[in-house]
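Appendix B. Raw example, untouched.
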Amino acid sequence: MVKTDVKEKRKKKKEEKSSLPEYYQKFKAYGLPLIVLLLAYIGFKIRAVTSNYKTFLDPDTFYHYELYKLAIQEWLPKYFPLANPPTGLKISESLGLYAVQAFFYKLVSPLGYDVMDAFKLWPPFVGAMTIIAVYLLGKKLHSNWAGVWAAAFMMFSYANFSKTYSGNNRGEGPFMMFFLYAVFSLIVYLDEKEWNWKKILSGVLFLITSVLYMGVWLGSQFGVGILLLFAAAHTIILFVFGKIEELKRFVKEFYPIYALSLLIGIALYPTGFVRIKGFLIFSLEAFIGLSVLVAIMLYGERFKLNYSDKKHRFGVVVGIGILGFVLAYLYLGPDLLKYMGAAYQSNPLYQTVAELAKTDWKTIAGYYSVKTKDGIIFLLSLAGFIIVLARFIRKLLKGDLTGYKEVFLVTYYIGSVYLLLMAVRFVFQASGAILLLAGVAIGEVFLFVENMKESMTTKALYAVLLILLFLPLPIIGAQYMNNMAINTSKAQGSVPADWVNTLTWLRENSHPLDSATSWWDYGYWIESSLLSNRRSATDGGHAYDRRYIVADFFAHYGNESEQDFEAWELNYMIVWQQDIYKFNAISYLGGAITYGEYKNNPMFQLIYPQYIQYVNESGKTVVYINTGQYAYQPVMTIDLTKGQVIQGRGDIPYVLYIFQGYGMLAYQSIAFSNFVRLAFHIPYSFEPWDAQMLFANFKPVYTNGGVSTYEFRPFAVYRIDKYENGTWKAFYSTTAGGKLPLGEQKLRLWISAFGRDVKDATLVFEAYNGTELIKREVLAENLNINHLNETPVEVSLTIPNATKYRFVLIQDGPVGVLNGEPKVDGKIANPSYILDEGQSGQLELIAAFRQDYTVDLYLRASIVYYVAPNGKDINKPNFRLEPHMDIITYVPVKEGISVKEGNNTIVAQASMPENVFESYIQELYKKYGEDKVVIVKKRIEPVFIAKKEYVIWEG
């Protein structure tokens, strides 16, 4: 009986010892996946907080929403009419992004989600699925614990949140999701030693997810490049360390499936689903070169190559690698460096884009922190990287052949951090590797505990303690990130109320074919069907060349600022006072300041009234900016509250504008620019009548808060004189107004021709009683005015008693816009470069007109370029550019086409002469010097010309 009791006690004690480890193993097997699902759900909820915003927080998403709606109807949309007027846009974005989102809509719409709801649901869904993906990949590459902690970090990481919150429907988020699943499928495929259903299924899933990650983002070259880098690194390591059999197995399994993924991507290029054909071909060529290297590795000894030890094998690799690089450079030339780099500030435009700025530690710490800008997650990832690298080296030295997982982690991390350091815009893409390696760092601690020689119960308790130790990280991080998401959703968002009101007014008060232009940041708002639904000359992703031209207009005044905006068929110019904070970039791109001034001199500074001091010095009023410690006189003070202009000593290179309640210092180079006068409604003329001309061509029609809308008129009367008692007397000006005198009159009309000449025009006078035309008189024919040297037009007429009068200019001008896919010989063509030089073809155009016309169809060749008077080195402090937009020629295609109001299909045979641009460029080189001319973009666009009526004055 005693013995039995002892046995029972021992048995019970043994069960107690084994019960906790058993539960622990079950917790790892079943509990951790459930925790990951919970993390994914929390991550989804955090990212969905911003879905309550009525539009989108990310400006680019307005454009993506338009293409997503097209994709629901067309799957792979090819043309967007509202960008790049008057021709519209052949969509060059990755159409896979829109097709995938449209498919998602088809899946969730039966659950009650409408088009907008599904669109807002997609990014949080992507975020949640990416959290699950990083868990699966971390588990496969390292351990359960690595996967769990990587998922926990991704759940709250601001770096990952930044592209997966609701209202940010860019391609980066879906790319990362599909790429991580592709890598997971690949690792499962490689892990299976024999061909079975699991290996076949994972291989198929790899091919599917590969095509998906290639198709959803133009930057998906990153994923293709990481896998190519992984293949090269693992191949070379196996060879150098003499693992030939393992090399053969890796080559046999990985190489065919990777090559097949590249070929499928290339094959899908004509559909538009995958857009990175150039990089895929480059990768395939590099992969073929790698395959040649493998052949030499495997069979080189037959040709007397020495593979006797690591040193000789490494020497062979280095020698072949150098030779391969040289051959690649000879084949590709400088383009090779483009493929090897991520983001370069290679032109003035890119220099001004904040997302392309170099990443510093402050940015890294801010994006990869738990709460404050501590950078803890990034530091953990560095620790994880060192651990993985050390483990790999240790395995290699022991002859362990399972190191391909470590090779992938190392190459993925190095590639991601390199990308991160190149530009701020890659903070999100780097988050995949950084969060994964941060998870590995903590996972390694858990593995250390599990491998201790303590009892299983003790080790399980240690693991529980570790969980409690690290648990505050995701809890604090989630709370902090959720609060940030809530604050973001409560914020004004990407479209301030002033802009919403302005764009609503524009939609309700303009023609559907109208276009409006502002600084390019707001182009997607203008184009959005949720806002004004109008055309925009330049936006966040298109018509980059026009940014220089808009900047030139904003940053200058007078003749120097004039560009042919009618070539864009511009109808409205929108100016926002808040762009004073972007005006360094605008002034630089417009050529008003040098690169050194752009970097070092703020264009505007707001001044509190208490710092503005009026002083009487020897009977003369002067103005100081008095900070208490120093007092400065600006170059000039323009007090708009008193109507005074006060000259200053110029202690600082600024002009002071005084408004009601505040002052504004404007850098002297841009102080009288069109932007300053249009944004702040300043009628001051630096040159006589200059402001009158500006406000004649840009007629104020609507102002809301700090946003002002102007109707653009290419030709406008800004001053009228009447001949009286032998002298000319001005009785009308743009800002002062004035009425036409009745009876017989001899008048002088001062016409401002903005950016283009008046040519062979007819000037007509009209008088109305209500809507009834009571008089129409031709005042002049064959009228010509040089827009750079305008002279007044003298007319004699009898002015009847009427309720309204108009002066109308009739001359040739562009009419109509393309409103559907343009085709050349039956194939969709690029509307802004529809035929190449020397090319012929049958054009099929869908063009929309405001009214019935008889039009002539032309091909218009134009060019945007800048002159760099101080040389082309954009990084020199004295670098400055002078933007130009020149129309080179109009090539006639078809005359006398009768068109109706609305859409018309026009078919015509067209031919573009050879050497149109080259001969013109050579003339530019002769004029300015070849070393000072930079060609930005060439255009060959179909345009319709008709006799067009321009109302140049009414009153």
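End of appendix B.
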